Prior knowledge:
alpha+beta, 4-stranded parallel beta sheet, Isoleucyl-tRNA Synthetase, domain 2
Amino acid sequence: xxxxxxxxxxxxxxxxxxxxxxxxxxxxxxxxxxxxxxxxxxxxxxxxxxxxxxxxxxxxxxxxxxxxxxxxxxxxxxxxxxxxxxxxxxxxxxxxxxxxxxxxxxxxxxxxxxxxxxxxxxxxxxxxxxxxxxxxxxxxxxxxxxxxxxxxxxxxxxxxxxxxxxxxxxxxxxxxxxxxxxxxxxxxxxxxxxxxxxxxxxxxxxxxxxxxxxxxxxxxxxxxxxxxxxxxxxxxxxxxxxxxxxxxxxxxxxxxxxxxxxxxxxxxxxxxxxxxxxxxxxxxxxxxxxxxxxxxxxxxxxxxxxxxxxxxxxxxxxxxxxxxxxxxxxxxxxxxxxxxxxxxxxxxxxxxxxxxxxxxxxxxxxxxxxxxxxxxxxxxxxxxxxxxxxxxxxxxxxxxxxxxxxxxxxxxxxxxxxxxxxxxxxxxxxxxxxxxxxxxxxxxxxxxxxxxxxxxxxxxxxxxxxxxxxxxxxxxxxxxxxxxxxxxxxxxxxxxxxxxxxxxxxxxxxxxxxxxxxxxxxxxxxxxxxxxxxxxxxxxxxxxxxxxxxxxxxxxxxxxxxxxxxxxxxxxxxxxxxxxxxxxxxxxxxxxxxxxxxxxxxxxxxxxxxxxxxxxxxxxxxxxxxxxxxxxxxxxxxxxxxxxxxxxxxxxxxxxxxxxxxxxxxxxxxxxxxxxxxxxxxxxxxxxxxxxxxxxxxxxxxxxxxxxxxxxxxxxxxxxxxxxxxxxxxxxxxxxxxxxxxxxxxxxxxxxxxxxxxxxxxxxxxxxxxxxxxxxxxxxxxxxxxxxxxxxxxxxxxxxxxxxxxxxxxxxxxxxxxxxxxxxxxxxxxxxxxxxxxxxxxxxxxxxxxxxxxxxxxxxxxxxxxxxxxxxxxxxxxxxxxxxxxxxxxxxxxxxxxxxxxxxxxxxxxxxxxxxxxxxxxxxxxxxxxxxxxxxxxxxxxxxxxxxxxxxxxxxxx
Length: 958
């Protein structure tokens, strides 16, 4: 402590200091815990409580699940948590029953990788991380209902994650009903003959395995062999979103390859239209809605078949949104992984094959094999990137253009993806930029079928690039059976679609970019699938009585040692090594008695637990059902302005737009369809907070150096005498620029930290951290303390007197503004208004009690500890948490006078201070009588006076 500060504390022993703040904060946190201050009662069940509180308007406020990192929190992490806490506290004070709590999304790769490195069980390290994080969050004074907190790794929690998986597994999407239905209803349709089986045989003649295969084609959760992102270095498959643009894993930076593995999938594609349509009912940022719309990627077009020459039973099916350009299709491209490739590749190159088509290989099979290996090392992002050099190889096969009868060569190329459309395209190079580049590279023909609107002519060989237009005439598109010439694009699409449908070689259809959700991982630390396989490989769901299926102990948490650069390695999951757990004899209650089964040895992805956690917050101790129906309807059911129901406010990062948010919406809709919940959407209002950034300092090698040890001299930055660079970026341990909330709390107190993070700028904008600026909010709290408490004696210094009119006006304007800002999540401007009021009060000789109490209530959501302490010192015995928030008196909110501008010929000649309620007649008289106006008119007559009370008078001379 400096000599100055020491002297100040002697002179003012009851000054608000970091030490006093720490004492106040610890005492009130203990008080809140002991008294259940933040307990939100349910209408029924074991958390049912005070009926009067339940009768209030409800408000369900949520943060996105935190992951309990071993590094703990830095000051960037709590930004959203503090914001939701302020919002929740405000709504408690405005008469709401507020549900606000926080759990932990605790499955995932980080804990498992730590286990691989150290041998520590993931549960041990994860639970230690959770405890540290709970301690840090508690120190911030967050008003969470602790009874409702949990972690996804709790067996009592993931029992219901497994249960939901089984509901999805035992469901199918009925396109006629436009909803999920129990799989038994589909079985009934097959058994009755209402729905024919794929091969036409009666349902009773199919074996159990054959029936299982048929149903798998309909189930909303199903296993299939599919191309996946295989990451040997992590020993697991990855979702597309977990692969970087350069084809490496987002976590660990390992190479990612395309491989075909049997995986569990969720049929999220069945809900594509509903996921799109229901976005309109949500109060979400438009940018997030747009990302989801683009990710789902609905497009209307046609699906049509191209016969393959010399292969009577083979056809290439394509989806196109430009069926009007069918006459311009001069070649075809299949994805390298397309299943038809091996069937159509001939033994030798056809006569007349161009050298540039072969890739220098002696046979088509050799060319295809080599190109497939080349494509396998690219991510989907890389394959879709616009690059100058287009690669591919001729398969040796030709398809027949159905509208012209012309043979067109069939290539494979990595710019066509198996996961989009049909994995095949008809290439119209004259009118598609990528096809044009490919055709140029491989010397392929081009035909103009959409008349250019510029002067380039109709010979594509003379063009610099493709001509793409949706508003042009079709040309060169006539055959013996159909003509599109002279039609616009829309008319041509309709005509050719009808022509295709008449000949049963195509149909108008809708396609989606959205792919089914890959839902398995080859790791240990995740939810086990409640699925077992019989001797015939048929999957059987475990009965509910066997849930939760808990993770067994294993000796080795790592996947078998893989060569990270070898695409041909295969996964061996840690669970598969526990033979006693994998191979079991079970009675599934199906009347067939005990039988041998083999458990599924993949685990669910880390997204599973966060797909439904909002429901568990509602009824966290219910062991009998997913959630009590009355409780779910109370907190999340549809209501006015929220037709699809959902959480009232959900705050988190925009990076989850097409992962967590889309997956959670899908699960919610399935549960809604099956009658388990009343809310068709999980989150009604979404708010994306910005990021707290920090300066990263790097030495000449590009290595980050400790930011706290960097010195600034003459506009440059130095670390241990060496000049370093500075760049604003993320905050984190690896960047050596992290500041922990513990450090700030120790130096200033948690209330100061809360105020600073809320005051830094608009909540949805990223902002740089500056430890030196924290002191500004610390001083605000010190001034507030001085306005109430005598720093010398520690006694309350307020007086029982009425405030003067100036103070009343300052007070009620602040109340009015802060209330509006609280509802709008504009906490930075709310703090500015409180600061302005506090500064005004500081200048008052004796602070009236009513003003001091209002100030304390205004700041209570933002700085709850000091508010509780001052509220108690002011003589109250109740907690400030549930006190009514101040309400402004409209009479004092309106300005006492406003400035009226008087113009003559558009030029300002006078300014009048008038009452806001002044009438037009009164204002006109005042303006015409003003000496400056009289002088400016200089006796001239007046043709017209335009009055816009109370702010404007415009005089037009004669």
